[in-house]
Design a protein that fits this description.
Layout: E1 6-8, E2 13-16, H1 21-31, E3 35-42, E4 48-54, E5 60-64, H2 73-76, E6 78-81, E7 83-84, H3 87-96, E8 100-108, E9 111-117, E10 123-125
Parallel strand pairs: 2-5, 6-10
Antiparallel strand pairs: 1-7, 3-4, 4-5, 8-9, 9-10
Length: 128
């Protein structure tokens, strides 16, 4: 089962303008009892900044960009990121369950990430 690989999540994705990402994160941390779970930048995607906030009131993944339409499809359509223990074991479990892998494990500052799509066409991310 895929959930046995989870550390935390899901983190519903929200796209935010670069100028608003700090206010967005501060608001969520202060008003929803949040804790910063992860933060990283991806310069090759136009200075994309990602913040993951864990909260007992609901997690959120804020993605700072001023050009959502210019992002790769797998970024635009990923709506439920999760943190996992072992990215490769999670990918193997996804494939065994019939979930299509859209992006193989890719190094980022918080570990690795990938993207997959379930038969219902819901895209997920698995950073670890």
């Amino acid at each position: 089962m895929i959930p046995e690989h989870f550390i935390s999540g899901p983190y519903p994705r929200v796209f935010v303008a670069h100028a608003e990402i700090n206010d967005f994160a501060s608001h969520y941390l202060r008003n929803f009892g949040g804790r910063l779970e992860y933060e990283f930048d991806i310069s090759r995607l136009g200075n994309l900044k990602v913040v993951g906030i864990e909260s007992p009131n609901g997690n959120v993944s804020g993605v700072a960009t001023d050009a959502v339409d210019e992002l790769p499809d797998y970024v635009q359509r990923t709506n439920l990121p999760y943190r996992v223990k072992d990215i490769r074991a999670t990918l193997d479990a996804c494939r065994a369950s019939g979930i299509k892998v859209l992006q193989e494990a890719t190094p980022v500052t918080v570990g690795f990430r990938d993207a997959s799509r379930s038969p219902a066409a819901m895209s997920s991310r698995w950073p670890n």
